[in-house]
Amino acid sequence: MTITLEDLGDERTRLVETMLFLTNDDRDGMLHSGMEEGMEESLAALDRVLAGMK
């Protein structure tokens, strides 16, 4: 997994997350594990933390 943060200026940042899997089955297993919901919750929590820093 690689996470890249890019300063876009105007108090904005682009977050790009790249995940590399050895097989399609590995990828599909991760997608069906509930990972997407967990990531959405994590990013929402990050938004709240960053909003509190302004």
Number of helices: 2
pLDDT < 50 stretches: none
Helix content: 40-55%
Q: Based on Cα principal axes, name the global outline.
A: elongated
End-to-end C-alpha gap: 29 Å
Number of domains: 1
Major β-sheet strand ordering: 1-2
Query: What is the arithmetic mean of pLDDT?
Result: 91
Tally of extended strands?
2
* Assembly context of the chains: single chain
Order of helices and strands: EEHH
Structural class: alpha+beta
> β content, as a range?
25-35%
Reported for the largest beta sheet, the result is:
2 strands, antiparallel
Determine Rg (CA atoms, Å). 14 Å
Describe this structure in words.
By secondary structure, this protein is α+β, with helices and mostly antiparallel strands. The chain has one domain. Helix content is 48%, strand content 28%. It is built from two helices and two strands; from the N terminus they run E-E-H-H. A two-stranded antiparallel ribbon has the order 1-2. It is elongated, with a radius of gyration of 14 Å. The protein starts with a strand and ends with a helix. The relative contact order is 0.13. The model has no long low-confidence stretch (mean pLDDT 91).
